Amino acid sequence: MNPKSVLKGRGAQLNVPNRFFEFSHEIRDDFLEFCNKEGENPDKKKTQYLEVFPKTIVNKIKSPDVGMMYSMNAYQGCEHGCIYCYARNTHEYWGYSPGLDFERRILVKKDAPKLLEDFIKKKSWKAYPIVMSGNTDCYQPAEQIYKITKQCLEVFLKYKHPVGIITKNALILRDLDILKELAKYNLIIVSLSITSLSEKTRRILEPRTATIKRRLDTVKTLTDNNVPVNVMMAPIIPSINSHEILPLAKAASENGASSIGHTIVRLNGAIGEIFTDWIEKTMPDRANKVLHQIENCHGGNLNDSRYGARMRGEGKIAEQITNLVRLARQRYFKDIGMPKLNCDLHEPYKNGQLKLF
């Protein structure tokens, strides 16, 4: 494969058809030739930010193996471009492709802070941790422009409501002052995703994310300021980052993380085609090996949708990965763990101020 054929700065290398559409879009050779003669670019590479106006922002999670009950997403689509991202398929619900569209057409929910405030002020609502980024990263590049995540954190602090954050972007440190205040009341936990210690791997696997050094520095800065951090080694991909489990856990521990978590890659829906195309272009020498080892973890398929098995995998390779993670926990995280968030403070603050009577 000619390296020039790889689309740099993006994870997906193509737009697969939307499964909900009867028709598909195809760029033909004669159109490409026309664009070349006219000096036009047939493919708009620039990221587009599109405002949307949902009626609600907090989602109840029904999947029993996700580890959260409520989540919210300020953005749909994610410019980070992680090739393995399970959230790609959700872009089809908005009428876009889970391929390049997922990275280049970012839907922005500017009303999220107001919707969040209305939700947690409901008389019927009993405080329970709401996780930001249950689907797409709340600190992706769009956050530098719109600051929706920061406004939502201010809402959580105002109403003393527990919140979790999942991110792989050092931009979270911009809001350190708010996170420190939330931590004083035991209202915040952060899960920082770090999938490799290799910058070469990071650049092709997660092309628009923060560097590994910046992420490790972010773990240290947060923990130095008493903000509890869990490092997510997710996903583990056989023969790409599976050999890094112990050194990655060691680095997380040395920078102050309280725990680690992991999942094994599963290429659900359209992601199987997107990932296969990507690895054949970026890692042609080991593409077959990686794909076959992923299949080994999921009963001969690239994906397993069964609750409980889908994120941990089965078979010898999955067992080896699980054992390595268990060993890492015993070696680097023995007798420590993430705190339980405080759900008892919120009720008196529903009207915006502490009730006196």
TrEMBL record:
<keyword id="KW-0411">Iron-sulfur</keyword>
<keyword id="KW-0479">Metal-binding</keyword>
<dbReference type="GO" id="GO:0051536">
    <property type="term" value="F:iron-sulfur cluster binding"/>
</dbReference>
<dbReference type="Pfam" id="PF04055">
    <property type="entry name" value="Radical_SAM"/>
</dbReference>
<dbReference type="InterPro" id="IPR058240">
    <property type="entry name" value="rSAM_sf"/>
</dbReference>
<dbReference type="GO" id="GO:0003824">
    <property type="term" value="F:catalytic activity"/>
</dbReference>
<dbReference type="GO" id="GO:0046872">
    <property type="term" value="F:metal ion binding"/>
</dbReference>
<keyword id="KW-0408">Iron</keyword>
<protein>
    <submittedName>
        <fullName>PA0069 family radical SAM protein</fullName>
    </submittedName>
</protein>
<dbReference type="InterPro" id="IPR040086">
    <property type="entry name" value="MJ0683-like"/>
</dbReference>
<dbReference type="InterPro" id="IPR006638">
    <property type="entry name" value="Elp3/MiaA/NifB-like_rSAM"/>
</dbReference>
<dbReference type="InterPro" id="IPR007197">
    <property type="entry name" value="rSAM"/>
</dbReference>
<feature type="domain" description="Radical SAM core">
    <location>
        <begin position="61"/>
        <end position="301"/>
    </location>
</feature>
